[in-house]
Amino acid sequence: MSSFSRTGLWGAADAYERYMGRWSRGVAPLFLDWLGAPPGRAWADIGCGTGELSLGIARRCAPGRLVGIDPSRAFLDRAASRVPGAEFREGDAALLDLPDAGFDYAVSGLVLNFLPDKAAGLAEMARVVRPGGTVALYVWDYAGHMQIMRRFFDAARLVDPASSAYDDGINAPICRPEPLREAFRAAGLAAPETTALDIPAAFAGFDDYWEPFLGGTGSAPKYCASLDESTRDRIRDMLRERLPTGPDGEILLAVRAWGVRGTVPG
Q1: Which residue(s) pair with 105 in the sheet?
Q2: pLDDT digits over 153-202, tens only?
Q3: For residues 23 and 166, what is the distance between their CA atoms, to the nearest angstrom?
Q4: Which positions are tagged coiled coil (predicted)?
């Protein structure tokens, strides 16, 4: 099994799209605007998943070359159908089958915290980028303003303290600005900087918010799938009471990712 494999956590492309893909669509353009890349550059998208970031690169950055790497065949098939002209390969973030200094940008969206060996993954991203090129990525602000999941786990902990074993706000401490900058410095990347990438998440009603947690794909849905019906219903009912709801039942939450970038030294 690849050290980058998300088997058992990720794998169902449709379930991922309903749970998180629809929100990642809003973050990718903000990230790419922040990078401000000129056209014609070579890009490597590490952990490309269903191709959301790759699609943004293709549409906004006029890449000269675009290669996506992911361990999930199902995700790669979805990405290839969405981003014609890009190349998608099965691969391991900690051991990329890509040449040294072959890219201008190595990027990653919502992946770093899932890597068993984060240092190796960042070192590989730096290795495949030419001197003066950019390594950049973004991750959800699990402990703070990724409120879709934060609201869920804050309620779940009141019902079932064991839910903390699935809570990325606890289990992914790297997803904060200073730990991200420190990880980039440790990978030998120069002048690392971070930025907040904020979008709203609007739900038509409670069911629109709740049903993606039943899809089994992602940390919180995996946790839900592990529960007996009574515990799951108690969490659902607590969330229904605690979520901010508008006059027509709509729910509006904040969604934040942290972006980080650094330069490969010359």
Answers
A1: 43, 134
A2: 999 999 999 999 999 999 999 999 999 999 999 999 999 999 999 999 99
A3: 20
A4: none
Query: Model pTM?
Result: 0.89
The pLDDT tens digits for 132-142 are 999 999 999 99
Q: Do residues 261 and 192 make contact, with C-beta atoms less than 8 angstroms apart?
A: yes
Residue with tokens 């709740």: 210
Report yes or no: 181 and 193 within 8 Å, Cβ to Cβ.
Answer: yes
Write down the residue that tokens 């998208």 correspond to: 45
Helix (H, G, I), strand (E, B) or coil at 63: coil
Superfamily of domain 13-263: Vaccinia Virus protein VP39 (3.40.50.150)
Backbone angles phi, psi at 196, to 5 degrees: -85, 135
Look at residue 228 and give its three-state secondary structure.
coil
Are 106 and 42 in contact by the 8 Å Cβ rule? The answer is no
Six-digit token string for 125: 């991203």
The 103-109 sheet, strands edge to edge: 87-90, 65-70, 42-46, 103-109, 129-140, 251-263, 190-203
Say which amino acid occupies 31: F
State the DSSP string of 193-206: EEEEEEEEEEESSH
